[in-house]
Amino acid sequence: MAVDQPLCYIETIEIPALSELQGRPMSQPPIQYRLVVFHAPDDPPAIRDLFVKVTGAHPTDAMQWVARVPGTWPKTLSADQSKALLDGLYDEGVAAEAWRLDLFPDLVPPHNVHVAACLADGFRVSGLRGEPTHWVPWEKIELISAGRVDQADEFRNVSPPSWTSAVRSGMMAIFRRPAIRGRTRRADRIIRDPVGEVYIVRSEPRICFRIVENAMNYAYLGQALRPTAAENFPLFVADLCARANDATITDATKSLLRKDGLIGQQFATPQALLDYTTLSLLWSWYRRDRNAQISTDY
Predict the structure, then answer these.
(1) What's phi and psi for 187, nearest 5 deg?
(2) pTM above 0.85, yes or no
(3) How many Å apart are CA 138 and CA 122, to the nearest integer?
(4) Which residue ranges form the domains of the chain, and what is each CATH number?
(5) Cα distance between residue 69 and residue 175, in whole Å
(6) How many CB atoms lie under 10 A from the CB of residue 56?
(7) Do 74 and 48 meet the contact criterion of CB atoms below 8 Å apart?
(8) Distance (Å, rounded) from C-alpha 111 to C-alpha 262?
(9) From CA 156, how far away is CA 145, in angstroms rounded?
(10) What is the average pLDDT across 138-143?
């Protein structure tokens, strides 16, 4: 008895030649954007609803971010999303700008500087052995951003356990009784003052230098040198600002030089100061482009 054999279908796939593949344009990934908001809105709930509608973010997350504005939206956006958000922010009277992800200024990681000098022709950065590593003409310094960063408190002078307490702990372990833990109040709490930091942004090429108040050699000050880093740091920042005539000086830097206390110049972490620096750099570009457009219109 003959058994029917199943039919087998074979599809022929034509593979193009390598020369044909090389001539075809490759598909490019969609361009992503970063959105920067420069001012706090007058109607935060309206801005929250706008971001929820366009990005699909949770209302609570969107509201928490709006409460921290000015700042940069933490996620990348498509071209359509960026346009929708810019249109909505414009209707609400909020200054904002969208940057292509590949053109967004990245100041990370900054170059940590320990030896530097403000000279007549420019800013010189040296290595730990005194060798010059960077030279920046004054006209190339684009932004100076200084502030004071909070430091974690310290606990010192904790009394070590005596030999009697060690014997008592051993007996408790033998009889399986809970050990008595030492009290944290025996430690002295030392509140540390905020430490000054300054970020210096140069252009062409864009490099960000970071100088920490108590990690800097101020020997170049010469006769103006003071006994402590806390005294020398404002002198260094003031000298830097006086020589970099074309640089943008942030409001926090001006507050530090005016010695306004900690109002407007205190930051929780170094990253918070760096984020403020990036936002200040973008704002300076935004104002420059807007002023150029106004002068062209008139």
Answers:
(1) -90, 145
(2) no
(3) 5
(4) 33-100 (3.30.1390.10), 111-153+190-297 (no CATH)
(5) 59
(6) 9
(7) no
(8) 26
(9) 34
(10) 97
